Each structure stands twice: as structure tokens, then as C-alpha cells.
Amino acid sequence: MKVTCKSKELMDAFKPVIKVIPKKAGKEILACVKIVAGTGGLSLHGYDGFVTYASAKMECTVDQMGAICVDAKFLSDLLAKLKGTEVSITCEPGTNEAHITSGRAKFSVPVKDPETFPPEPTYEEGTTLCVDAQILKEGVAGIAFCAAEENVETNPMLKGIALRINPDLRSIDIVALDGFRVAQKTLPLLGTAVQERTVIIPAVQVSNFTKTLVGEQKVYVHIGKATVGFIGDTVVYTIQQIAGKFYDYQQFKTKDIEASCKVDKDQLMGSIERAQVMIGNEHIPIVVEMKDGILDVSLKTNRGRFEEETPCESEGTALVGFNPRYMQEMLANAKEAEVVLKFGGSRKPVLCEVTDGWYVVLPVNINR
Questions:
Q1: How far is 201 from 242, CA to CA, in rounded Å?
Q2: Which residues of the chain have a pLDDT value below 50?
Q3: Are 277 and 291 in contact (CB under 8 A)?
Q4: Residues β-bridged to residue 115
Q5: d(CA 23, CA 336)
Q6: Which of 54, 86, 116 is the endpoint of a domain?
Q7: Same domain, 274 and 316
Q8: Containing structural domain, residue 48
């Protein structure tokens, strides 16, 4: 194998692949990135051994086709230190050493047999959808924060994003929830869908893929029997589905509205941020009280008391306690300058409807 490419372009192609490579791989080959030089340029491949296979392609000069596997962490560190604008990678057939040159720097690194690297998944029969790339990127970013964190011991479905096809509406719903809040977005399809279906996929890996979307116009989403493929212009993620039936997320959407208000998002976010200064390491809810055109945020901690009033357009009255971080993240991901909050009582979730979906935050008991 012998190739020459731009240093920055190689690093850009490598970034989405290394995201799926495990820090502690069960097999040595899974700690590697597979580099393939072919007629179409260079492609890089990574696999975590369980959930996600990632590949990225880039243009380069190929003088000799071939493939090698290199330790991914080592290659990442090496690329980050290169000063030259171009990189050449050479590996003679039948040898276990590759030569990497950039500027005046020369490296000789061990390589592994590419035949031992897991093969790239092929897509079985299924449903293929087409979505605007930037709408998908913004939609996933707007809900993924509601999925449970990877290091939390909980039901795997709470760490996922549900993707529900709405063929009649020519759209898909994407939903994330962690048991304390729910986020839902509706994304229009470019084209039609033939059948209704819901699948669950790990939120972290979907987020990793959508973060690679820069300048793409559209993304194809292939939903198979056990995997979901996200196919961009240069990056492809094949992600294993999470087995099971997703929660009935619509039940969390408050229907019996007792009160509502329209409030400036930034003003309310600022009020909650100032309240959090008083919390420190304590787990204390903020108290939100709404009446007579005022949305009052208050709390009492060992550090003292806080209270701030924000003007709003209100109907009815409400008194509810919330986790301040959950409220803050909900507001931060709403695009609107003004948000409408709907209350169903002190023991029911607050509903925030936005142009392309809705958010729900469950209440916390308060002693009042």
C-alpha cells in the first residue's frame, strides 16, 4: 500500500471513526483502525465489537492499493503532532510494518493483518429514509441530552433514542427520555415512507454520527432487522438496535392544562442560573410560582435564600418544584426567543411546546 493525502483531511476522516473504537478493547484488533487504499481513495474503519461500525472515506493519491490495521490511539496521537501539510503511508506486501512520513518526520510503526478485522456490515432488506442532514443534526442535538448517561446503571432503553416512522405524515419522530424528562422532535422526510415502525438506537452513537455532518445536504437512514445505518456523504455509522418496545412517551405529555405562561427564554434561564449559585453540591429543587403576570423562581439552601421575578403573560396560577438543571437544559435546547410553559398541577409535568416538537420535565416534591 502506498498513499499520499492532506494531513488535515486524514485527521478529519479519522475523528468520526475513533469515536467508536473502545478504550479497552476485548481483542487487540478492535483497538485498531483499518485503513484501505482503493480505486475510490482512502477509507478508514472502526468497530467497538458490539454496537457500532463506523467508516469514513476521503480523497487521496493512491500509488499502490492495499490495507493495514494500525493502533488507533497511537495513530491519533501521531496525527495530532504532525507539522507537514501532507502525509504518506507506505506498507510493502507481506510485511508487518508501515512507514509514515510527513515533512521531515518519519515513523515506522507495527501493523496487523487487515484480514483479521471484522468485515463491514452489509444492509439486509429493510426501510430506507432520506432526511435533511442539518435538520437531523439539530433534531438529535435537541433531544439527546434527555437520554440517560452511558455510565448510569439503568434500563438500556433510557440510554437510547426512539425513531418512529410516520408514513402518513411523511415524517419521523425522535424521542429521548431518562425517567425524569422527555424530549420529542418531528423531522420531515425527503420523500415517502412505506410503513410505520419504531426502533431504538443508542443516543451516544447517533449523536457521534450527527456531529460529523458538516456541509452535507441529506442523510439516508436504513432501518434493517437488527441495525440502523446512517449514511452520509463520507461517513457511515451502522448501529445495533436496542431490543424491546419503547415507552409510551405520549403519556407524559400533560393534557389537563390548568395554567400557562409565555416568558422570555433568556430571562428565565438567567434566573435559574443565578439560583444554581446558591445550590452548590446540594440536591435542592427550585420552586416556580406563577401568578398575575409574574414567574417567580425561588429556593432555600444552607447558603441562604434566592428569589427572582420574571415578567410573563400568564393564565391561571401554578406552584411547582423542578430540578434546576433539567429546566435549564430544556430551555437551552428550545430555539424560540419566547417559550410557552403549560402546567397541569403541582404533581404533573410541565410541558414546553416548540415549533418542531415538545419537552416535558417531571416535578419534584416541595415542602410548602
A1: 6
A2: none
A3: no
A4: none
A5: 39
A6: 116
A7: yes
A8: 2-116
